[in-house]
Design brief:
Chain lengths: 72, 138
């Protein structure tokens, strides 16, 4: 593949990426808990699998900031 | 998780009053998924998200999941323990969190602030403002 055609293909990919993101955003924002909703409880483990945390344990003690993400 | 660079600046002043939970969910752009490792997209990605990786496959086991979460925690180095969603994506689905999203949960267990879908609508400044406002109200 020449550099030019590769760049063209990438540009198309970027445009489609934004369209796909917008569709996804509409779908997921509809499902996401809103201000005032009771939060779904959970228990998760850390990267070693040995330490756990339960969201509801913080009720009445501390507000909680949830930061969701990944590495890529 | 480029937003975490700025989130670190929120963590520092508020971590005594607010519990921060960093939750690793699904990979946003694995090699075998919605990959951005092509020429132009790689350049854009590394410019805007210099700490993010583009060289991982979607984990297939909880051990792989934890290993990548650990690499992410090490790379970001902002001192917040990372917790890992299970392979059934329960928490990710419950919070419609993929690829990134921020929430503030109040003392009563209700959502105080629900951020938009990242990365475009992930706004750490809005979380900071919500924390400020909430702490003044309790």
């Amino acid at each position: 593949m020449t550099i030019l055609s590769e760049l063209g293909s990438d540009a198309k990919f970027i445009l489609l990426f934004r369209m796909k993101y917008t569709r996804l955003q509409k779908e997921l924002d509809r499902k996401a808990p809103k201000a005032g909703d009771i939060t779904p409880d959970f228990t998760l483990h850390d990267i070693t699998g040995t330490q756990s945390v339960t969201l509801s344990d913080f009720r009445g003690k501390k507000p909680v900031a949830l930061v969701f993400g990944s590495y890529t | 998780m480029n937003g975490n660079v700025r989130l670190y600046e929120i963590f520092e002043p508020y971590h005594q009053q607010v519990q921060f939970l960093n939750i690793y969910i699904r990979e946003a752009h694995p090699i075998d998924g919605w990959w951005l490792g092509r020429r132009l997209t790689r350049k854009l990605f590394t410019t805007y998200f210099p700490k993010a990786s583009m060289d991982h496959y979607d984990p297939k086991t909880i051990e792989e999941h934890r290993a990548i979460a650990g690499e992410c925690e090490t790379a970001l180095q902002y001192g917040i323990r990372t917790y890992v969603d299970e392979m059934d994506d329960y928490v990710n689905n419950a919070y419609a969190a993929w690829p990134t999203r921020l929430y503030l949960v109040g003392l009563d267990g209700r959502v105080v602030y629900a951020g938009g879908l990242g990365p475009y609508c992930m706004k750490p400044k809005a979380l900071k403002d919500a924390i400020d406002q909430y702490l003044k109200s309790v």
